[in-house]
Amino acid sequence: MTDTAPRPTLEAVAARAGVSRATVSRVVNGGDGVRDALVERVRKAVDELGYVPNQAARSLVTRRHDAIAVVVAEPETRVFADPFFALQLRGISKELTAHDNQLVLLLTEGRDDHARVGRYLAGGHVDGALVFSLHLHDPLPELIQRAGVPTVFGGRPGWSGDRQGVVYVDSDNRGGARDAVRHLAGLGRTRIAHITGALDQTSAADRLDGYRDVMADADPRLIAEADFTPAGGERAMRELLDRCPDVDAVFAANDLTASGALRVLRESGRRVPDDIAVIGFDDMLPVAEQTDPPLTTVRQDIEEMGRLMARLLLRELDRGTSHGGSGEATGDTPSSVVLPTTLVRRASA
Questions:
Q1: How many Cβ atoms from other residues are within 10 Å of residue 58's Cβ?
Q2: Per-residue pLDDT tens for 225-278?
Q3: Where are the extended beta strands (E) located within the chain?
Q4: How far is 296 from 278, CA to CA, in rounded Å?
Q5: Contact between residue 34 and residue 23 where contact means Cβ atoms under 8 Å apart
Q6: Residue 155: is its pLDDT beyond 80?
Q7: Phi/psi zone of residue 63: left (φ > 0), alpha (ψ -120 to 50 degrees), beta?
Q8: How far is it, in rounded angstroms, from Cα 162 to Cα 253?
Q9: Cα(143)–Cα(123) distance, rounded to whole angstroms?
């Protein structure tokens, strides 16, 4: 066994810097009222001694844990297989890391998971929550509201009724869908189908609405429901070919769905884009650039969505701290953000 050196204390830092313990505490915990010259001396002493603040003691002063819960309303098999979640989590992680906050990942698959997440959030372990991939009738918003945790949602929440102070970050799903379908129509395609995402999510519902904005008189058989997965895209494409063999274009609700549709079209001997043009949504490069042919798609900045979610939440937490640490809304809650989308043309349409 080796002896472990004792951890440097506040008193040791104070002695090295030649200041009081209270001054060190204010500097370490981000307090005001310390002259710049003293702040520099304290920081130099902290670096020289390798002092690490005690988080529990720091929390008593700042009322902050410097930890944020990221709640994804999906099972782990979906989260770790879908690059969308990796991109969004990367954006969140970058922003939290830049502000010295820890990311606590919580996934939900069933009723027990929802209850567990609700208990954790109510237990005061984190300063706030970032929540995305919500489904209709998901109990999470109610549990979060009950826990009283500041929250920013990824995607427009789909619950009915007005909830004051709700903040979310989303993309222009409806407008992006319109651009995709208009592009297909501009290519001279007349039998344009839509493979939806999971329609208990607002992103899928908005993209379906965008399709209908352009194809108001479309044959209802040209709409096939799926679930944002490659397997769902395969099933839906087979359904479309069976009931509408003259389909000449497909707008898929995301790139993974489009990749499944492309596999079925290749197996059936349909040429893309000669026989059927295909457009996806997301522009996830690991998918869109590697399909055969490379996928025309609607780009949304997924990583930036994650960054913005974290930025809005941290801003709100800082506001709460500056108003006495209550965490309550101060009347200037940040506004929700809807990011624009862009059509990216490749070989599939």
A1: 17
A2: 999 999 999 999 999 999 999 999 999 999 999 999 999 999 999 999 999 999
A3: 67-72, 102-107, 128-132, 151-154, 168-171, 192-195, 223-224, 249-252, 277-282, 296-299, 337-339, 342-344
A4: 7
A5: yes
A6: yes
A7: left
A8: 28
A9: 12
